[in-house]
Queue: 2 jobs
Job 1
Amino acid sequence: APTAIGHEAVTGASGLFQHTAATLQLTLIGFIIGTAIGLIISLALHMVPFLKTALYPLLILSQNVPTIALAPLLMIWFGFGMLPKVIVITLVCFFPVAVAALDGLARTDRTMMNYMQMAGATSWQIFTKLELPHALPSIFSGIRIAATYSVMGAVIGEWIGSDRGIGYYMMLQKSGYRTDRVFVAILVIVLLSLLMVLLITLLEKRLVRWNRKG
């Protein structure tokens, strides 16, 4: 019953907090790295068109490998430390960021671009003054998707091999047939995802408004 789940969340809050903090730390590290890699890839493919033609299909293929199948291999290759878990989160985060950024950059107003080119603007000025501000809403849409994926990526990594975190806590309680605690873990995962999306939304409001005013 919901009352049993709420009671367990309150009584086990101290131990659950430690697992939540571990998952949040792992999530933030992987999310930041994955987002940075996604932005770098999108900028490289946008600036060099032949790279986009050659590498874009590979980006799509990279998402066809099930994460739950890849995670055990990463554990074998890199051990049971933080690195394989960060790689899992990075793999699920970079793709939506890269695709959304590429789409936003490709939708730049061509009329404004022609005006800037006729005015003698350099490629860097066009990028910083027109393309990037115009693409920010799309970029943040991809980042919001990556933010939700990052939490689940962290949990999957903890499922495979960890001694702490919400994923580890969930598997432990599942083995003990503690359904109430499993639901508590699910609730924590949902709250972490909502928190990540909220933070990204607040950041978007500040940055996009700043660019519009500029």
Job 2
Amino acid sequence: MKALVGANLIDGTGAPVVNDTTLLIDGERIVAVGPQAAVELPPNTEIIDVKGYTLLPGLIDCHDHLASKGYELSDRWGLTEPVSLQHLRTAKVLEQTLAAGYTCVRDGAWLDVGFKQAVEEGLYPGPRLVLSVAIISPTGGLGDHVCGAGHHKPWGDNPLLPPGVANGVDGVRAKVREMVRVGADVIKFATTGGASSRQGHGPKDIAFGADEVKALITEARALGRKTMCHALGGPGLRMAIEQGAGSIEHGCYLSEDPDLLKMMADQNTFFVPTFEIYEFHSTVSAPHMIERAKALMRVHEESMHQALAAGVKVVPGTDAGGYVHGDNAREIELLVERGMSTMQAIQAATGWAAECVGLQDDIGTLTPGKLADLLVVDGDPVRDIGVLRDQKRFKLVMKGGDDFVNNIAAPALQPVG
């Protein structure tokens, strides 16, 4: 057994910090946690001295694109380098993300199941992965990869990354089944355009009809899969919420339809605002993308405020693939800059995020029975949320009881008797 002794504990439930605690681990799971005096250590327990540090659950990114390397068309279509080199770069991103304290990531498209298998088999380090594989959309939608000249993306030879285009009730049902067949843990679909979509398909432009969305979500549920929907505003956002999408990705214009927020709270529909990607698009993207990102910033922030007030669980997702990897905690920082308290933001990135990705029985909070996915930092993120971005202050990153980052002195042994 291992015991982390002396830390100030943030357990991921939103409860206040508990000082001078002990967390006891047996194998990959937590068996006891609480004030030092309340946790008895068995003989020969490895004692890891973390006195004065902050202990919190491993962080969770609810929307990333770990296989994406850039926003240039040649990068997005995978034309710039050999596929083998692309895969090795993705493996490095997995390692960087875990080193950043992220022990779980829900990937929003283009990561095939082989990476998850490699992590689970211990072939390569990385966070726990919840995969969507591809974005399902109709012809002309977000998942229909067409360049300005009208040419389609060459799909290559990886049958584990099928195209996401589907039309009609029968078509979307078949596409959901295909995604599950190739390893999707969650079904991602798009009912609107976005900031980064092609000109003429913007944030409030609709994709799919209500019958298609209902069929898609019904089929996903029948196959035991949650859903995540790219939807920014307008009728496409409304139909996704009315039909019961598990989470709304981006949701920038939610505040313009406040009745939807009560519906989300009642249904326990999560809101993943992805502020970080719009920070990026508002500065260095194509002109039409910059214009869209700047136009939605204020209403996007108001949407988060109204969502929290309505009881909607807001969780962080970077949507960062394509421009940065390993700085996922910038999204947590942005949640605070946009008006969350620091403790709310930590709960959002741990306990609530685990619910969003469907792993709340195993991760997200530091409670007995959960997997020992955790982060120890030198500093107090409740006072300064930026601590979670400063990897020089990371003392320990643990996943399933195993150290990935360890900058703590060698453990002592609890004596016998």
